[in-house]
């Protein structure tokens, strides 16, 4: 009898969590229209006091852990389909694309991490193409600015070295692009990132995944070999474009997993993909083998500490081709690509466009 009461209470909490979470997230992640001009979104940068409160005082990491716990509670079978259908209506999600019947997803975590039916996200096979790693909307895309400045929104940039993760308080991270590091810098430890050739350039692309999107992400290019994996502990602030307009250095502040490697032409070009956490998205999964587990949003983790810990192991070889599954979020968040390509590379999309996983978003010519 006691077990039944506990199970019943857990079921009620699950239902309330779904309903409350949907309402909260709907307010936190307002729908974005096709072609939305993110630069024109309203909102002024936060004051110094409010910035400190939001980034240091709000218990967003604890809230995200609580949300994750609720999401793992089992839902009663008769309620699963109605609740998941309601979620999909709220966030404009096509429930018919799910690989399994709705009743087979035991909780929200399983539903968020659902695979899609085979063939729904074909990977473009055009030569020399870069494809979208996920479903989402383009927040920004284009060349990396001088001295490694990445574009967040109008008026806000952030440092690429800070974003990818420095190796010590006084150590710079060498990057593979002209004007990103000083040639006199003697602390270049990432040799894989210092192979820039004059005919190449660094490019960036940021994709925003809404709560209703497919949450897994895949390799955007062929012949991408990982050289390093970094886990940067950080905040879990919302990455909604309206929030990005008000909080400088948002992507540097947030927790993230940075995947560094090389691709193309005997893997001589730098390629990085970073999965950025957000409010209620503390859990980021990687689907490739690692020597040590990558545990995000841990209790007591020191903010902005960088864990490298030889995740890949000494002799590990992790290689991806275009469309290969890399990882996934437990809800929506952001993917940031920074990669080296020939100067004639050009994007085929622009900020505000909605893209699907596997869709061609850029191409270059030999």
UniProtKB/TrEMBL annotation:
What are its cofactors? pyruvate
| Cellular component aspect of the GO annotation | mitochondrion
Pathway named in the protein's UniProt entry: Phospholipid metabolism; phosphatidylethanolamine biosynthesis; Lipid metabolism
Q: Name one GO biological process term.
A: phosphatidylethanolamine biosynthetic process
Question: By what name is this protein known?
Answer: phosphatidylserine decarboxylase
Q: This protein's superkingdom?
A: Eukaryota
Q: What class of enzyme is it?
A: lyase
Q: Name one GO molecular function term.
A: phosphatidylserine decarboxylase activity
Pfam family of the protein (one): PS_Dcarbxylase
What sections of the sequence does the record tag as coiled-coil? none
Q: According to the entry, what is the taxonomic lineage of the organism?
A: Eukaryota, Rhodophyta, Bangiophyceae, Porphyridiales, Porphyridiaceae
Which key words tag this protein in UniProt? Decarboxylase, Lipid biosynthesis, Lipid metabolism, Lyase, Phospholipid biosynthesis, Phospholipid metabolism, Pyruvate
Task: Supply the EC number(s).
Answer: 4.1.1.65
């Amino acid at each position: 009898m006691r077990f039944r009461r506990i199970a019943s209470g857990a079921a009620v909490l699950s239902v309330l969590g779904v309903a409350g979470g949907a309402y909260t997230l709907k307010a936190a992640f307002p729908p974005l229209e096709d072609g939305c001009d993110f630069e024109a979104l309203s909102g002024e940068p936060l004051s110094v006091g409010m910035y400190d409160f939001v980034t240091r005082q709000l218990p967003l990491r604890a809230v995200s852990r609580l949300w994750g716990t609720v999401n793992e509670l089992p839902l009663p079978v008769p309620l699963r389909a109605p609740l998941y259908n309601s979620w999909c209506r709220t966030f404009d999600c096509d429930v018919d694309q799910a690989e399994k019947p709705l009743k087979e997803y035991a909780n929200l975590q399983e539903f968020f991490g659902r695979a899609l039916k085979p063939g729904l996200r074909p990977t473009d096979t055009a030569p020399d193409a870069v494809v979208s790693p996920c479903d989402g909307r383009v927040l920004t895309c284009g060349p990396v600015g001088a001295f490694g400045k990445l574009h967040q929104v109008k008026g806000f940039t952030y440092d690429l070295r800070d974003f990818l993760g420095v190796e010590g308080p006084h150590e710079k991270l060498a990057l593979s692009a002209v004007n990103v590091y000083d040639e006199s810098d003697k602390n270049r430890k990432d040799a894989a990132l210092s192979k820039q050739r004059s005919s190449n350039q660094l490019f960036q692309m940021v994709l925003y995944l809404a709560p209703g999107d497919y949450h897994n992400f895949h390799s955007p290019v062929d012949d991408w070999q990982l050289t390093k994996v970094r886990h940067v502990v950080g905040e879990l602030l919302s990455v909604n474009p309206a929030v990005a307009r008000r909080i400088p250095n948002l992507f540097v502040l947030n927790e993230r997993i940075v995947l560094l490697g090389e691709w193309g032409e005997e893997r001589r070009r730098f390629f990085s993909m970073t999965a950025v956490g957000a409010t209620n998205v503390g859990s980021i999964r990687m689907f490739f083998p690692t020597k040590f587990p990558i545990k995000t949003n841990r209790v007591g983790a020191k903010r902005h500490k960088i864990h490298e810990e030889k995740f890949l192991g000494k002799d590990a070889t992790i290689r991806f081709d275009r469309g290969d599954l890399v990882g996934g979020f437990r809800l929506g968040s952001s993917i940031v690509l920074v990669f080296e390509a020939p100067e004639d590379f050009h994007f085929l999309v622009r900020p505000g466009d909605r893209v699907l996983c596997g869709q061609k978003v850029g191409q270059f010519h030999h």
